[in-house]
Specification:
single chain, 449 residues, alpha+beta, 5-stranded antiparallel beta sheet, 5 helices, 29 strands
Length: 449
């Protein structure tokens, strides 16, 4: 009988340690047993701290300034199919079309007499609509006229009153305008197919829901936000706030949620099914909020304010994660988030359109595989240690203009004084006679159905 003998052999596969090319990095065998790495957490913390510092070092969000308008930029519109095309309307009735890749104006047309109050592109991108102080709605071709042709609108509708806003349906040839009332128009007809009014003097903006496309909402001058269903003859309901809302924007990913920009320096995110209190109150601005726009992913939105700053808010947080400002930028009137969610465009009083990065420290251009891996690793580390005091202090710190900084301190003092007074009144009153009103409930007067 032959006895079997076991022989232990060392087996090394060259693929595990030999470089593919001489320019490749050396492969190092690693043992990931935690008992062999007792200083893993301190090492990772140091890396997270360095990554956070580097993020602030490389935070240079401003990319370009598009100048060419001869009056303040009053409204902007994105092209639905082209990332590089932007439309802007100014206070002197001029509309410009921009190529963002080359950062130049490709077309200029005198659309209205007086302000261009609103503009929007058709869902297919073949034409766009403008409304102005001359009581007209005009439809223009997206393509520039050929050599020798005059710049003429495809269609002109003369209304009875000034239109203050316009928005196009996301799937059909229907658009909505607002002014003294909210009108629903068919592109083929010269009179509105449906009209909504609810005892209000005027409306400042109207927006179609991008998910439930038959729903729309508008902001009215009586401090109310009104919801409509295009298929019904009367408005659905409205919520009346303490102060007037300037504009609103629907979340492109969550059909029932919208955010409104208010005159009381705050933004409010509502669930349209429950309007008696906002879901979240977004505070940080120190003057009236004039415009906002959602990121295409629906996770964040950008707001433009009279305090000459632009802020980026996560949809579920009350404080902004980023603030943009320049010495030359005046009151920011309109803002748009690009369709690829990488850039932000702002139009302001001093006739300029500015292009910003949505992530201030993001590197533009093509990244190698190792760069991507290093950035992903840094992001994970920052996420892991985000609540550590040292990391949080560096990540949150922002330089503000002196006026904004002093105003925010003053507002904080005023708010604390009000809270202290309320506490003292409650302390010296009969129990239950002075109810506790939450921050969310303070700003809503009533809901009318």
């Amino acid at each position: 009988m032959i006895k079997k003998m076991k022989v232990k052999v060392l087996c090394r596969n060259p693929d595990d340690y030999v470089r593919e090319t001489t320019k490749d990095i050396q492969r190092v065998p690693r043992n990931y047993d935690p008992s062999l790495h007792p200083f893993e957490v301190p090492r990772e913390f140091t890396r997270a701290l360095n990554a956070t510092k580097l993020e602030r070092v490389f935070a240079k969000p401003f990319l370009a300034s598009l100048d060419g308008h001869r009056d303040g930029v009053n409204c902007m519109a994105k092209h639905p199919t082209s990332l590089a095309t932007l439309l802007s309307g100014s206070c002197d009735g001029e509309v410009k079309m921009w190529n963002l890749t080359n950062r130049e104006c490709t077309r200029t047309l005198q659309a209205h007499e007086g302000f261009v109050r609103g503009m929007c592109a058709r869902f297919c991108g073949t034409s766009f609509f403008t409304v102005g102080d001359d009581k007209t709605i005009k439809q223009w071709k997206m393509e520039a006229p050929s050599y020798g042709e005059e710049e003429e609108p495809l269609n002109t509708i003369l209304g009875k009153a000034v239109y203050t806003g316009i928005d196009h349906h996301w799937k059909e040839g229907i658009f909505a305008t607002c002014g003294q009332q909210v009108d629903i128009w068919d592109e083929q007809k010269s009179s509105p197919i449906r009209t909504f009014s609810w005892g209000v003097d005027s409306f400042s903006s109207v927006r179609f829901n991008p998910v439930e496309t038959h729903l729309l909402a508008s902001c009215a001058s009586d401090r109310s936000i009104v919801l409509y269903d295009m298929r019904e003859a009367t408005p659905l309901k409205k919520v009346i706030m303490k102060l007037r809302s300037n504009t609103l924007c629907w979340n492109p990913m969550e059909a029932f949620h919208f955010t409104c920009a208010n005159e009381d320096y705050n933004l409010y995110t509502f669930d349209m099914r429950r309007l008696d209190a906002p879901k979240i109150v977004h505070m940080d601005h120190v003057s009236a909020v004039l415009d906002l726009d959602y990121c295409p992913t629906g996770t964040e939105f950008v707001s433009a304010s009279f305090d000459k700053t632009v802020r980026i808010f996560p949809k579920d947080q009350g404080r902004s994660r980023e603030v943009y400002h320049t010495k030359r930028m005046q009151h920011v009137i309109c803002v748009k988030w690009s369709s690829d969610s990488k850039y932000i465009l702002t139009g302001s009083d001093e006739m300029n359109i500015r292009l910003w990065k949505a992530k201030a420290s993001e590197k533009l251009g093509v990244l190698s595989q190792r760069e991507k891996a290093a950035l992903d690793y840094s992001e994970k580390l920052k996420e892991k240690f985000q609540h550590h005091p040292q990391v949080r202090r560096i990540a949150r710190h922002r330089h503000l203009p002196k006026a904004v900084y002093s105003l925010s301190k003053e507002l904080h003092v005023m708010k604390e004084a009000r809270r202290r007074k309320e506490r003292n009144v409650r302390k010296h009153s009969k129990p239950g006679s002075v109810p506790v009103v939450t921050e969310k409930e303070k700003h809503v007067v009533t809901v009318v159905k």
